[in-house]
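In the current project phase, the collection of sequences with tokenised folds has grown. A sample record is quoted in full directly below:
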Amino acid sequence: MGPGTDPAGLRVLDLTDELAFQGARLLVGIGADVVRTEPGAGLGPAARTHWHAGKRWMPAKNPADLDALAAAADVILESGPVARLRGVHEDGSSRWPHAVHVVVTPFGLTGPRRDWIGDDLVLASAGGMTWLGGRPDGQPKPPPREQALLTAGAHAAIGALLAVVSGTPQLVDVSAQEAVAATLETAALAWIHAGRFPVRNGGVYEHVAHQIFETADGYVAGGYSGSDRMWTDLLAWMAERGEAGDLLDDRWQDATFRWRQRPHVDAVVRRFAARQPAAELAAEARERALPWAEVVPAARLTDNPQLRDRESLVTITGEGLPDGGVQDLGFPWAALPQPVTLPALREVAPGEQPWGGPRRVRGHGEEPKSMALEGVRVLDLTWVLAGPYVTKQLGEHGADIVKIESRHRQDPTRFAPSMHLRPGSDPDDSGYFINFNRNKRGVALNLRTEEGQRLLRELVPHCDVVVENFSPGVLARWGMDYASLRELNPDVILVSMAGVGQTGPWRNAVTFADTLAAMSGLSSETRDPGGPPQGLTFGLGDMIAANSAVIATLDLLARGHGGHVDLSQLEAMAATMGPAALESVLDDRVPDPRTADFPNRSPHTLPHGVYPAAGDDRWVAVSVTDEAQWHALTRLVELPCRNGDLAARRAHEDEIDAALAAWASRHDAHKLAETLQADGIAAAVVATGQDLVEADEQLAARGFYPVLDHPLTGPVRHEGIVARLAATPGRLDRPAPLLGQHTAEVLRELLGLSDDQLATLTAEGVTE
């Protein structure tokens, strides 16, 4: 990394549509100077304010104007269907090779489906998210607030910063479908390792005993998985209230028995929750350090005491906004000085230059790196999903990941039978662990021993980055808080990933993926009209937080100095709720056309839904986004209101959906999606894990499920790399480690320990 790559001064040319709005917004959040070429045309006031605050715009009336802007940019962020890209030549090369040019398309720049189109519904379906959502007796549906597009945008920002850190201008190819497919937790992994895939069930996690429960006045998310204390303390609380039923019997102390009898346990817990107000139950759970949270609407997030105490909200001021501005949801981490105030999108004044001074990413004279993070070493103290997903991404782009584990602190993804995926597997070949811990070296250290803690501290001077997701205060007890780490390594980057952050009134809250989704407003919007919130059946929040932590890490690596990333998973998830907090303030709410039977309708397009195809539980997603697509669809199938505009079609939406469903049900889902796309209509199979791994020709052509040879499992497919860098590509080159597989290797290499010293550590139980 050479001088002059500080993201706080990066010049970013923003050529994004909704596919990558989030990517450009995240770059604003680390201080980049972002210029668009249009003023947010077509967006309502809330959306325009949220997505484009902190940016300027300058018209590019012709290709020469666009090239002039591009010539002065360090990063060009472009998105849209391949046919509408302005910066990619026919051969797939960049029109602006002097810059980091990130291109986000629905299905990628290569492959047989490179020309396919799609919005959030279609891409969530093609990537596997939609299959996991919804009631078992209804249509599958994706997570709310366009999480497929927001995930693609996050990977766009990651790709941009990887290229910046590499110091090499280059093209970065991001497929929205692949971004989604890498964000499913076990959906494809269960097929790879066990020949099965999870199915939608209305929001009950398959391998964690958590879900949404109704209360006296609302809903809470919670459960009893995790450490034994999560069960015993919940049981004690229920007993205090006289609500424990027969769960006080000794047989329920056995976790395996509880898991097998989960419906009964859930029924007792449901009665316990139903007698309490939601906010009171959540507050007492925080006091008891139990993972429960109130399901709150996103409109209430600006009043959240934790977000307010940490000054994570953003004030946006400018023309057309109320005096004093409006409060919006903030960014995943505090790269900007707080409190943050941003101007609304404004036009560059006539005669004003969009940027001044030299560009920052100009390439180095020395031999370029082979991978973006070559030479970076990461001390990985994480477990479960959010933290390992961070170090997974850093490792696949060349960082040396030294993962610290122990059989004395058992990672559930390695040790818990419910997370092994494949029957008969053991901790060293757990399918869940294998996927998220490839490209890492495994070191066993018993951190309950003083010697284990001492060795851990001795590793710090040899590492550039330390990533941890312990509860706040744990590292300090080991003498490894940020101040202590700086004494060991002045330039160290510490990435902390607590559920709600290291500070604030809720800092000690114990969180799971579902409780963070409840706190962030996401769970509230999973409800069908007139129904209860359903929650999610996979840990989307873990991946959202992980992507945010990767961006923060790359930001500091690009700046060339250390720092403490106090990442709050709650803040990261709140940052994916789009303009939700502004809609009521700016009167930007539109009528909701959804119904319980058609929960995927959109106020902006019609038809827009998931329709049954031939076969058992087979579905195809269809989204007609303009009049040309509508007319193309009516040439394929006889539909009511054939010549009507969107407003006219809205009056006949029930008839249109019924006719389209009847037609689709006579066709194979894969063939139907191909037929529709061939006529320029956005469509995709609602993909299961099996579809993704075995039947998707685009993912296969792009090699998205590469094979690594694991010492116990043998050749096994893994989820692939999302950000594809042309000049410094990432790769998968080693399977996940066996427990302690590289202990001796790493301690010899980094600390210079002898065979005798290693033998003593083994005898004393330090390296286990």
Summary: The CA atoms of residues 423 and 765 lie 30 Å apart.
